[in-house]
Amino acid sequence: MIFCFITEVIPVDTTALLVMTVLIATGLVTPLEGISGFANEATITILALFIIGAGLDNSGAINYLGKKLQRFFLNDEWLVIAMVMLLVGFLSAFMNNTAIVVVFMPILLRISRVTNLSSNRLLMTLSFAAMMGGATTVIGTSTNLLVSSLAVQSGIEQFDIFEFTGLGVLLFLGFFIFMLTIGRFLIPIRTPSTLSNEYRLKDFVTEFVVPVDSPLVGNTLRSLPFFNDPDVTVIEVIRKGKTLWLPRGNEIMQSNDTILIKGGVDDIVNIKSEKGLTFPKDFSQIDRDLESGELVLAEVMVLPNSKIVGRKMKRIAFNEIYNAVPLAVKKKGGIYSGKQANYRPEIGDTILLETQKSNLGFLNNHQDLGVLDEHTRQIFDHRKIIFSFLVVALVVLLAALNLVPILTSSLIGCMLMLLSKTVSLQKAYQFVEWKIIFLLAGLLPLGIAIHNTGLDHVVADAIYNLTEGWPVQLIISMLFLVTVLLTSVISNQATAILLVPVAISLASDMGMAPKPFLLTVLFAASTSFITPIGYQTNLLIYGAGNFKFMDFVKVGGILTLLIWLLASFLIPLFYF
Length: 576
Known about the structure:
Mean pLDDT: 85
CATH class of one domain: Alpha Beta
Distance between the termini: 36 Å
Strand content: 5-15%
Shape: elongated
Strand order of the largest sheet: 7-6-8-5-9
Number of helices: 25
């Protein structure tokens, strides 16, 4: 199971459902226990909070706050980074942090261009602030709600919404000071370049001029030897100053036509070897032709719920669905130089598209792709924005005053968003991260199986015997370290399900209250900055920020070390 989670040879949600099926089939859990994850309080609460987040996103509330941030356009890097940390950290305490990162990315990229501040520093700060902010309240992350729900299943009192906020704020303060004084200077500054250079378009796009005496004159585009190649697309025919975009195969070529083609690296090399065609020596002309007239280059990011994730590019009708042509793909580790038609996009990949200016608004509002540049002006409905903020405030207030459980307040907020038509049910379906829902539903029975088989006691007894005589601070420190390292290679929800039963049994063996041990797992699972795969917000900024794996190891590793030391001191101080 751990192998499947690390390598993702099987999607993690499918792995979770496979675990659930095996547990039921082997009798380690009863059928009712096996499907209990679908009715678990944490699963339903998280689902309701996703829909509330969909209402906030659809109303433009998050975008509105981000736009307000743009007004400052400050040239002082430390001040911009401080503002980003405070605003994003606060929002992430009550809203889905993935959605916040998706909304703020294009805003921060624009601020970077206007102020010449490093986009790398802004984006890494954005992701880390969202993670730290989410760790300050029970509803801040799905992991927090999961740990709280698992505690209730074990007969432990549920966490109040702000029960560990004081501790979370102190950890956030440590993160805040670190990023302003040390962390931002560790993030490398990579000089931004044009989109065509960044995506190495000269390797994927070329153009040729049809000479007056060419045998191609009078023939159709379909007669070109490479026209039917699935990896090659004729994207433009420029004739007498006018551009024909995505021409049909029956288009007749005329003398002096300029024909733009995109394909794989090998395809472009082969096309350039064709006899009788004239190719420009300077790519700058091709660069200008790609953004001539109504055509524009748009950089988009593959979003978490995108329908194109895992599908071969040749199976995705980009022109029909998105009215755009994919020119190049930037994945984790750099530009994809293989056969683009066979590439399967992943979450966080960025794709350079050529599209029409009039189509940018459609792309901006699509659930599959997030545009990383602001081409369109958004009109805000202030009544919906105010209403959505009031709904969130009501959800928090009802739970904070213990008037109703968090599940109930979340469901009330969810229904208010739907009944007021702040968001439609269809858009809510698209916004929900179903992978997380099925991951939780599939893995929650694993926690039951660990308890039923006594494995939690076996592991806890082994740890207790190993650490007998150790001060509690050292045991908390060790538990935090194990959790944070495990979270670096598998999902934080899976880590919590595996270690929460062990933490509870360990506390029982030591004759101590379980909540400090649960909080150790909770904070460690939510603050693993070491790798870009440790948390989804890191994945989202990975490609867009041109980061390298070692950037996270260097900056995130030191930050994780700091949070580990702070938590090892503060948790015992607060609870023992």
